[in-house]
Design brief:
Blueprint: H1 3-27, H2 32-58, H3 62-65, H4 69-89, H5 101-124, H6 130-153, H7 160-178
Helix pairs in contact: 1-2, 1-5, 1-6, 1-7, 2-5, 2-6, 4-5, 4-7
Length: 179
């Protein structure tokens, strides 16, 4: 996978964290810098960590699935892309937001499950994991901070368009994996 593809993958993966942080930015008016950094560090670390876990777990079965790598990558990215687009059109439920340690861990896990699949994809493409995981974590950290602060500024912007864009981006990467 090229670095441009890895960058686009990292950007797409960071959208969940950006959207969650956007929601937190709408809700919290106190300790904004501390809350933003807490969310960004947690989501960035979990995105990077989950991609590493996916990468290394793939190593156990890589020899069996290597011949089907392009198809598997296509299916994973298509699934994630469709999931993102579907979620963009679902009605959002009223959520109460907390920002204590337990909630941050749960947010980190929830926003990084897709990164596990990305780690599998990186392994199948034969990439090393350190630089991509670092890039995924940094881009998520940046986008999480952006989402939080934009949430306070752009309360009227629907997040649906970010999720649709992310889904289309993942689908495009999936198609590219076939060729």
């Amino acid at each position: 996978m090229s670095y441009l593809s890895i960058f686009l993958l990292a950007l797409a993966l960071s959208i969940d964290a950006c959207v969650v942080s956007f929601s937190y930015g709408l809700a919290f008016n106190h300790n904004r810098l501390k809350n933003s950094l807490s969310l960004a560090i947690c989501t960035g670390v979990f995105q990077a960590l989950m991609s590493v876990i996916g990468y290394f777990l793939t190593g156990f079965v890589k020899s069996y699935i290597q011949p089907f790598a392009g198809l598997i990558v296509f299916l994973i990215f298509t699934y994630l892309g469709v999931k993102f687009i579907k979620e963009a059109f679902e009605k959002e439920k009223e959520k109460s937001l907390c920002i204590d340690f337990k909630c941050l861990i749960l947010v980190g896990i929830a926003t990084s499950i897709d990164a596990f699949s990305a780690g599998i994809t990186l392994s199948l493409f034969g990439n090393r994991i350190l630089k991509p995981a670092f890039l995924i974590g940094i881009i998520t950290f940046i986008n999480s901070n952006l989402g939080f602060f934009l949430g306070g500024k752009l309360k009227h912007l629907p997040t649906k368009y970010l999720e649709i864009f992310s889904g289309l981006l993942l689908f495009g990467l999936g198609i590219k994996a076939l060729f």
